[in-house]
Every structure is written in C-alpha cells, then in structure tokens.
UniProtKB/TrEMBL annotation:
It is found in: Cell membrane. SMART domains: PlsC. This is MFS transporter. InterPro entries: MFS, MFS_trans_sf, Plipid/glycerol_acylTrfase. Keywords: Cell membrane, Membrane, Transmembrane, Transmembrane helix, Transport. Coiled coil: none annotated. Its main location: membrane. SUPFAM superfamilies: Glycerol-3-phosphate (1)-acyltransferase (SSF69593), MFS general substrate transporter (SSF103473). The chain crosses the membrane at residues 53-73, 93-110, 116-136, 157-177, 238-257, 277-296, 303-324, 344-369, 381-404, 410-430, 459-482.
Length: 644
C-alpha cells in the first residue's frame, strides 16, 4: 500500500474525467459494433441463407480472416499516421469512416438479393477490419499522453475490461437481433448504424492533443514499412520481448475462444446457449483480471504480475484438461441441465480463472510498452504489436487445426497450449529477467510481508538518480524494487553474492558487487566505474552507504562511496538527485540478523504477513548530499513512523 492509494480515487474515477471517459466510450462502441456486425453476419450466413460458394462450416473462418487481413496490410501505415497527426483528428476520422461502412452494411442487411448481399457484407467486414486497424495504435498511444504513470495500469485495465465487455455484448446482441423473426436484419442494420453514430458522438468529446512526431514522413509501402516497424520495436529489448509476450497471449486466447463451439457441443454435450455461456465466463474473467491489476500493482506499472498471470494460465489450463477428460457422454444439454451438473462448475471455474490470469498477464505488458516506448515512435511500435498479434492468431488457427486434423481432441489441444505457455513464459522471463525479479519482489512485498510505502512520489519517473537507504536485511534490495516504478541497479557488498538463491537473484538483476577499497582496490574501482555508467545511461542507482547489513538494528555511519559516485557525476556534467529512503520495522524479521544469531535461521520469527515499511524523502541536490547529510536524512525518515 502507498499513500497514493488513499489520496487518489480508483480507476473507475477516470470515467468521470473528460481526458478518459469520451475515449473509453468511443473504443467501447467500436468494439461492440465490430462484434455485433460480425456475429450477426456469421449467424445469418450459417442459419438463414444458402450460399453455394460460402458453406456454413467456412463462414466463420472466412469472415474472421477478412477482418484480420487489414491488420497485416495496413498496421504499419496506421502507426505512422497516428504518430504524425493529432490523435483526436485520427479518432474522429476513423469514427466517420465507421459510419460510412455501417451505412453500406445496413444496405447489405436490408437487401433481398443474396448475390449482392453477401459480397457487400464481406467487403464491409474487410473495411471494419481496416477501421479497427486504424484505431488500434491510437487506442494504446493515446493513454500515455493523458494519464500519469500511476494511472496507466488502471487506465489500461479499464480499456481491456471495456473491450471484452463490448465484445461479449456485441456478440450477444448481434445473435439476439438477427434471430428476431421477420425484423432481425432490419434491427441489426439499425443497431450497427446507431452504434457508429454514438461512437462518433463520444469522439467529439475527446480533448485535442498535439501530434507526437508531426515532421514524420509517411512511407506508404506496407511491406517495407511493416519490416521497418518491427526493426524499430526490436531496438528496445524489453519492449520487443513484451510485444512477443502479448502476441503469445493472443495466440493462447485464440486457441480457447475458437474452440468454444466445439467444446460446448462435442465435449460438454451442450447446446448453443452453453457455448454462449463459455464466452460469457471467459469475458468476465478477462475483465476482472484487467481491473485487478491496479489493485495489485500499487498504482505503478507492475510487471511482476505478468509471471503470476502466466502461472495461472498454465495451471488452470492444465486443470481444465483434467476437468474435461472424465465427463460422461450424454444427450444434448440445455443451459439449465448443464448448470445442474457439479462437474461443469469446475470447468467454468477453470475457464474464469484462466481468463482472469490472462488479464493479469496482458495489462501490465501493455502499460510497460506505453511507458518505455519513445513518445515519437509509440504508435508505430503499437502498430508492430498489432502485426505480430495478427500473425500469432493466424498461427494459432493453423496449429490448432492441424492438431485437431491429426486426431487430437479439444481438451488435448488445450493441454498442449497450457504446457507450451509454461515453456514460452519461462523463456521470456529468462530473456528479460526484469519480469521475474519484479514477480519475486511482488510476492515478497504482498505475501511474505505487509509492505507499506510512504512518499514514493519522490522516486523520479525519468532520468538518473541515486537512491540511498539503510541496510537492515538480505532482502532490502528486493523491497526497494517492489516500491520503485523503474528498475534499479544496486551497488552491493560482494559477500551477499555468495548467499544461495539471493546471490543468483542479484546477479540476475545485474547488481554491482563492491568490496572495501582496502580489501580489493581493483574491485572497488570497477564498482565505482560501473555505478557512474548506470547514471550516464539515465537509470536509477541504489546504494546502501552503511556498507553492510546492520548487526544491532541501528543506523551505522555512512561510508564515502556515494560521495565519489556523485563527484564523478558532477565531473560528467550530470544533474543527479539523491533520494533518501528508510526501511522500517524490518529488523528482527527472518531475513535480518538479530543480536543473538544470524539471519534466515528461524522461519516465521515474527509470524506471517509481518508489517514493514519504506519511507521516501524529497530528493537532495548532489552538491549537498554528503555522507553526513544523507545519514541525517535517513535517520529522520526512520524517526517519522517508528515501529511501522
């Protein structure tokens, strides 16, 4: 918990603010319209029309492929347009385009000439895919321009929740309207045009924003620009691997969503209402997981939730296989009969928790990409993400189809996907250790301890800074990681690297080992040089100036290493603020030393969920930050909330 949790309202308060609410309802109406139109069209071709060249079994595949094709063809161009033009202008143009497309689609639904009707609606499907392609980069590039870092996770959670609720409502309403006897197609036509008009009305309220790269020269060749976008995204390792992680989530989700009809009919022996129920459960799970991200992240972009989500996706995916494997054969079940069988509740629980985990997995990744991408290139990087998402979703269809064609069952396909998710997740987290480290920090600060942070607004969101803290336990660095919205490179006593597990973690975090100058002058000089380089690169540097973990719980005299680092920064003409911090109530816990013995010798020394804290003070200028001044600042922070 942080002070910010009490002084700022939660993410739902954004719906009362002009910078967010009109945008939210604009994207909500667009997602709902996409799915109302597509699902109504699919049902119409499947059940109401007889089209020789488009058999019912192929209708869903063709409509889905036409909708996703523009993402491959035009994402690169849409990313350029979003970076070059004011985002409000792009949004309103897209909404005007949606009105025109839906007007043509209305003519298609109302036509009695099947030879004209189906080709016209297929063309509208492609154009609605283009509409979504143009809106995609705006959707995620808009948020970092109007939301603070502390609001970014909550804002993304709201957008993700809104998107899946809109998808769900669009499918349900589209299916209900098209099935109305006699007036179904008319109602769908009216509904599509009405949603497009409501979306344009909402877009009118979006505030004007300046373009992020107005001098950008547009390259219209989609092939070369797609490659250029992917190379641009590849330039930032963490961002690019996060793009791959999000694309994998869409691969994973597409496997499950595409098989719901087959799962309902062939495995669960349910009717079409059961298939709809599975979609409802999955969508609600995603929505809840997306909204939970702000609650679990202390209002920062907490990528430690990503491994938690990945674990849930695999665990509940595997359990879903076992829940499905033993179901007995039966006649076709209606919704009430399906819900009356206890075994089916385990299936729905697995689906809901799997989807909730996917929400925990995806929202922090989206927020991280927005936060770490340069503003001038952000939309093009989001466009690269849309391209990768489309490719991964196509691959999921091909691979799932190949497995089913080879004789594997739907539950087995789910099992293979869940196991593959574990392998992919482990691979990504080892390639980008920041995810794993933040996960461990999140667990320590939420499960092992009740961690309370005060004053974390003083940790700078950009630029170099030195974080100075007292040294109480072997996990001090991990707790500071949990409190910071940015990665921290620590200068740490070389002896801590010999501690099993913790030493591996700190090496993974690229911590800088330092030895006393009298003991190893070369190692000391190398540590000072590495610390200076961290600041030159604009990153956060964490230092424990006492030089070692306290043995009596009291603050020890600060050594001069921090002064040498700051002197080097001044020589390099860098402005480096120094942020004092104080860990409180950590002395006497399992990971700290005690006067009668060493650390980590008696678990649950203070019970479980023991309360610890971190007080963060205002930054000091480097010129004033002598060891004595810093020690006094940390001591004052320790005295602010004794015993907390």
């Amino acid at each position: 918990m942080t002070d910010d949790d009490q002084t700022h309202p939660n993410q739902f308060a954004l719906l009362r603010q002009r910078r967010f609410a009109p945008f939210f309802w604009t994207q909500f109406s667009g997602a709902a319209n996409d799915n109302l139109f597509k699902f109504a069209f699919t049902v119409m071709v499947t059940y109401q029309l007889s089209v020789a060249w488009l058999p019912p079994a192929m209708a869903g595949l063709v409509i889905g492929a036409l909708f996703i094709l523009p993402f491959l063809l035009f994402s690169a161009t849409s990313g350029q347009l979003t970076d070059k033009l004011p985002k409000t202008q792009v949004i309103r143009f897209v909404k005007n385009l949606e009105i025109a497309i839906m007007a043509v689609a209305a003519l298609g639904f109302l036509s009695d000439d099947v030879g004209l009707q189906v080709p016209l609606l297929l063309a509208c499907t492609f154009l609605m895919g283009l509409h979504s392609t143009l809106f995609g980069p705006v959707k995620f590039a808009y948020l970092p321009q109007v939301l603070h870092e502390r609001e970014l996770t909550g804002g993304n959670g709201m957008v993700e929740m809104g998107t899946f609720v809109a998808i769900l409502l669009g499918n349900i309403v589209g299916g209900l309207l098209i099935a109305l006897p006699g007036v179904g197609r008319t109602c769908v036509a009216i509904g599509c045009v009405a949603l497009a008009l409501l979306g344009r009305l909402a877009a009118q309220g979006i505030p004007q924003l300046p373009a992020t790269d107005p001098q950008l020269r547009i390259h219209w060749n989609p092939v070369s620009e797609t490659w250029r976008n992917l190379k641009l995204a590849h330039g930032n390792t963490v961002v690019f691997r996060s793009l791959l992680g999000i694309s994998w989530m869409w691969f994973f989700g597409a496997v499950f969503l595409s098989q719901f009809p087959s799962l309902a009919k062939e495995v669960l022996h349910g009717d079409e209402h059961v298939a709809s129920l599975l979609l409802v459960v999955f969508s609600i799970g995603i929505a809840i997981g997306s909204l939970l991200c702000e609650v679990l992240s202390r209002r920062h972009v907490e990528i430690g939730l990503v491994p938690l989500g990945a674990i849930g996706m695999s665990v509940f995916g595997v359990d879903l296989y076992f829940a499905l494997r033993g179901l007995p054969a039966s006649s076709l079940l209606g919704l009430a009969e399906f819900l009356a069988r206890p075994a089916h509740w385990r299936v729905m629980a697995d689906l809901a928790l799997l989807a909730l985990s996917a929400g925990l997995y995806s929202v922090p990744m989206y927020a991280l990409i927005q936060l770490r991408s340069p503003a001038t290139h952000r939309a093009r990087i989001i466009a690269a993400n849309n391209i990768l998402n489309a490719l991964f979703m196509i691959a999921s269809s091909l691979i799932a189809g190949a497995l089913l064609g080879a004789g594997f069952t739907v539950p087995q396909v789910f099992l293979f996907t869940a196991l593959a998710n574990a392998v992919v997740g482990l691979y990504i987290f080892l390639l980008v250790p920041e995810y794993l480290l933040r996960f461990i920090a999140w667990v320590l600060s939420h499960v092992v301890y009740r961690f309370r942070v005060r004053g974390d607004v003083h940790i700078p969101l950009a630029g170099p800074a030195v974080l100075v803290c007292n040294h109480v336990s072997f996990v001090d660095a991990i707790l500071l990681m949990a409190a910071s919205p940015r990665p921290i490179r620590f200068v740490m006593d070389h002896r801590i690297f010999r501690v099993p597990v913790l030493g591996w973690l700190f090496r993974l975090a690229k911590a800088i080992p330092v030895a006393p100058q009298k003991e190893d002058a070369a190692a000391y000089a190398a540590a000072m040089a590495a610390a200076a380089q961290v600041l030159r690169e604009g990153d956060l540097l964490g230092i424990f100036p006492e030089g070692a973990i306290t043995r009596d719980g009291q603050l020890q005299p600060f050594k001069g290493g921090v002064a040498k680092i700051l002197a080097q920064a001044r020589d390099d003409d860098m402005v480096v603020p120094v942020v004092p911090m104080a860990l409180t109530n950590l002395w006497g816990s399992y990971f700290s030393r005690i006067e009668a013995g060493g650390a980590m010798v008696r678990p649950f020394r203070r019970g479980v969920f023991s309360r610890v804290g971190l007080n963060v003070g205002p930054a000091l200028a480097a010129e004033a930050a002598t060891p004595e001044v810093l020690q006094g600042a940390v001591a004052a922070l320790l005295a602010q909330h004794p015993g907390e």
